[in-house]
């Protein structure tokens, strides 16, 4: 922001007027929602705007609730709906825009902000959402925080003339649409992957060899038939001599954040490791307590905690990548037993996991296929994240 003129760092070149101070209550009409719980249906004419209708990105979401009563008041397009109760961090005060007339009805604990003349909805929604902290710090409550009408209407902000508002609002509307389209492409790729996982591991879709011939039937094995299962350990957390803050050679489930892992999320000393041996590079690991069936492949030797096991194949006819995708395709919890802290797997349960195993040549093809698909998904995901980062940069520079 240019402090002398109250203008943003980045502007469209045709505008040079100073932005003026406004109060939200002066530019919108505030309306509370009603109580429609007794009228709610799973399907209906009108979509009900609830606390689940706006996400932390300011996107309008389907609450899954509908009503049919034609006597209710519906919302007009370009109306902002604002979350008044914080059901999740970062939600109170967030807004989204109603796209069409006569489709939406406002439930309680959500407010409608109807813009008056010379205020652009897209501009206003983006401005409010980038200042969500204002509403969060002013919300009050013991179990659930709520923002009052007074605090909403007293929100002060700087805004340009209506023409510049429209241009800024239109710019972000187009950028949001671009992000939405790329997210749809990402979702389509993920749907395709889920479809291929179902078809390939049910053997509805099979690969053929280089001569176009079918591979042999798959074998049905148990984990104990193809692998030795080893488990990790946790040094005494109260002994500082066992832990090294400058190292990242020990892994807990919290550190299993992606398919390939190159380091741990904590460090232990040689004394902490005692007589334990690191998990070898390119080994498949799996969580079997608390968070069940989380899988990864370590790309550097590493120690793991006692809630993570790793597989050491007994023969060379098992492809680690294939096993990663196969075990991800099944519900590991069905092999577990109920414990105090949830479903867990003991040694017998892990060893009893059923594995459908094709010959190594077909395993290799399946692994290659899913790896290629994962790279496409990763590339598309990076594209979406880059656009979101770009949007955040513009939000910082194009508003005061």
From TrEMBL:
Source taxonomy: Bacteria, Bacillati, Bacillota, Bacilli, Bacillales
Originating gene: hsdS
GO biological process: DNA restriction-modification system
Keyword Lipid biosynthesis: no
GO terms of molecular function: DNA binding; endonuclease activity
Keyword set, alphabetical order: Coiled coil, DNA-binding, Endonuclease, Hydrolase, Nuclease, Restriction system
Family statement drawn from the similarity comment of this UniProt entry: Belongs to the type-I restriction system S methylase family.
Keyword Heme: no
Name of the protein this chain belongs to: Specificity determinant HsdS
Domain of life: Bacteria
Species of the source: Staphylococcus aureus
Residues of the Type I restriction modification DNA specificity domain: 17-191, 217-382
Residue runs in coiled coils: 172-199
């Amino acid at each position: 922001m240019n402090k002398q003129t109250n203008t943003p760092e980045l502007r469209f070149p045709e505008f040079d007027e100073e932005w003026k101070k406004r109060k939200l209550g002066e530019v919108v009409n505030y309306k509370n929602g009603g109580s429609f719980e007794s009228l709610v249906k799973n399907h209906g004419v009108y979509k009900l705007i609830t606390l689940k209708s706006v996400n932390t990105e300011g996107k309008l979401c389907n609450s899954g609730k509908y009503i049919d009563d034609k006597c209710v008041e519906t919302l007009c397009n370009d109306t902002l709906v604002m979350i008044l109760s914080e059901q999740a961090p970062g939600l109170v005060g967030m807004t989204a825009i109603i796209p069409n007339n006569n489709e939406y009805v406002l439930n309680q604990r959500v407010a409608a902000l109807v813009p008056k003349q010379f205020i652009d909805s897209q501009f206003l929604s983006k401005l409010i959402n980038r200042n969500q902290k204002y509403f969060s710090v002013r919300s009050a409550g013991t179990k659930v925080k709520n923002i009052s009408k007074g605090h909403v209407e007293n929100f002060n902000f700087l805004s340009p003339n209506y023409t510049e508002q429209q241009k800024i609002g239109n710019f972000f509307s187009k950028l949001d649409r671009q992000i939405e389209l790329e997210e749809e492409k990402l979702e389509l790729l993920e749907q395709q992957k889920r479809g291929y996982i179902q078809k390939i591991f049910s053997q509805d879709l099979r690969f053929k060899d280089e001569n176009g011939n079918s591979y042999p039937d798959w074998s049905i094995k148990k984990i104990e038939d193809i692998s030795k299962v080893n488990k990790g350990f946790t040094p005494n957390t109260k002994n500082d001599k066992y832990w090294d803050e400058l190292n990242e050679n020990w892994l807990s489930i919290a550190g299993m954040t992606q398919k390939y892992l190159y380091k741990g999320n904590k460090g232990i000393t040689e004394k902490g490791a005692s007589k334990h041996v690191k998990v070898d590079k390119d080994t498949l690991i799996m969580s079997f307590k608390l968070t069940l069936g989380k899988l990864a492949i370590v790309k550097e030797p590493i120690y793991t905690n006692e809630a993570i096991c790793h597989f050491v194949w007994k023969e060379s006819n098992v492809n680690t990548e294939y096993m990663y995708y196969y075990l991800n395709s099944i519900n590991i919890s069905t092999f577990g037993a109920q414990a105090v802290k949830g479903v867990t797997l003991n040694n017998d349960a892990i060893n009893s996991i059923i594995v459908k195993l094709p010959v190594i040549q077909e395993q290799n093809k399946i692994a290659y296929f899913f790896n290629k698909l994962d790279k496409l998904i990763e590339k598309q995901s990076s594209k979406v994240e880059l656009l979101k980062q770009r949007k955040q940069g513009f939000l910082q520079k194009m508003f005061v």
